[in-house]
Every structure is written in structure tokens, then in C-alpha cells.
Amino acid sequence: MNTSSGKTALITGASSGIGYELTRCFAQDGHNVVMVANHEDKLQQAAQQIRTEFPLVTIQTVSVDLSRDGAADRLYSEVQDKGFQVDFLVNNAGFGEKGPFLENELDKELALIHLNVITLVTLTKRYLREMVSRGSGKILQVSSVAAFLPHPLLAVYAATKSFVLSFSESLQNEIKDTPVTITVLCPPPTETNFFEVANMENSKIANSSQVQAADEVAKAGYEGLLKGDARVLPTFVAKMYAAQGITLPDSVNAAIVHKQLEDVKK
């Protein structure tokens, strides 16, 4: 299908990786999309690619650094001013920072917490209220398989993703008597720019067969969102991580993950 449905998806972190592939999923089904990302040039390039592929849908862009104070509310106001009703909210934007907690820069970790947690909570609050009030809408929260395991060398990132999972599944219960649904996508290591931003290009896990294709992860998340699934573990690798978190002691999981996050020896 390639005709506009009149429904609109707001997707953060939409210029690359899972966010970009989710944008393609929505556009392919005729939904209009507000693509949100930090870097204007990359965002416009990605938006033009979507417009070329799906010329009958409306693609809007908002360039904003959602790791900054007040940025989520500014985004919300700008989308309101444009007159869009957001039928689908996709909280995808996020980043990580690899390294020992004692050595990592605090400012970067606080920005990470702001983007991965505070922005997600703010946008969820604003749009969930609207959706419940009108009796329609769906939210996709992008967590991670890191939510299920302790992650030495990615301690702050993994903690934020555990928050996303717990927060979202708590809200699922709170709104269970409404038509609105919240779906949590828990991707495994995926082919995105995450490894580069997190300084993980040389890690064992980034160079392993566990890394999955972004389009496959996005498609599973999109289909789960439409069905109203509570949780999406999009690949066998993702299911393996979740099972590992349940079956092995945290101390053992921490040791395993620490090894995976170490750099490949040259």
C-alpha cells in the first residue's frame, strides 16, 4: 500500500538504524511520519530517501537534540503547532557509552539518561494523555535486551533500558481498560551507528554473529505494535538474551557480558 491513511507516526531517532527502518514500515502502509533526529543534514537526507520511495505520504522533519533540558516539550509544542494528531508514538532515540563507570564522562552519561529516560517519559506523558482521552493510539517504546542483564562497561545505558522496560510494562497495566496500547521492543545487538557512538566498534560483541539486521528488528517491532503486543523480542538472539537473564545468576551474566564487551585482541 502507498496511499496516505491520514494517520501520523512520530518517530524519534528516525534518521538511521531501527528508527529509519521503522519510518519505512509506517510509510509503506500509507502512514504520514514526523521524523525526529538531532543532526539536521542526516535527517534531511533520510527524509528525502523516504519521500522518493513513498511519494504519496507526508514526511515532516524536526531537528532537535532531545538530550537537552526542555527539548521534548519543545518538540511536542512544535508538532502541535504544525497541526498533527500523533496516532503512533515511537520512542526510539537513544545512545550508549562504553567504558568503566569510574572513567566515563559524567556529562555524557547524564545526557544519555536525559535522552533514554527523561525524554521518553515526557513524550509518553504528553501523548499518552491525548491518546487515552480520545480513545485511540499506540506507543512503541524501544528498550533493549540489555534490560534483562547487568552490563558492566555499559552500566548506565543498560540501567536506562531496564527503566524503559519496567516503566512501560507498568503503564500497560494502568491503561489495560483503554483502547490504547504500549508495546516494548527489545532489540538484540543491531546493525546501527550505536556501536560507533558508544565507542564499541572494536568490542567482541560488535564483531560477532549476534548482530542483527535493522530492517528485521524494525519489522518485528512494527508488526508487534500494530497487534498491540506487550513485548517484542524480534529475533532468536533477543529471545536468547531474555532467557539467559532468567536462567543464570546475575553475577554469572555480568561476567559473561563483561567479556563480550571487551575489545577484540589484535
UniProtKB/TrEMBL annotation:
One of its GO terms (cellular component) is membrane. InterPro entries: NAD(P)-bd_dom_sf, Sc_DH/Rdtase_CS, SDR_fam. The keyword Oxidoreductase applies. Keywords: Oxidoreductase. One of its GO terms (molecular function) is oxidoreductase activity. Belongs to the short-chain dehydrogenases/reductases (SDR) family. PANTHER family: DEHYDROGENASE/REDUCTASE SDR FAMILY MEMBER 7B, SHORT-CHAIN DEHYDROGENASE-RELATED. This is Short-chain dehydrogenase. It comes from Adhaeribacter aerolatus. The gene is dltE_2.
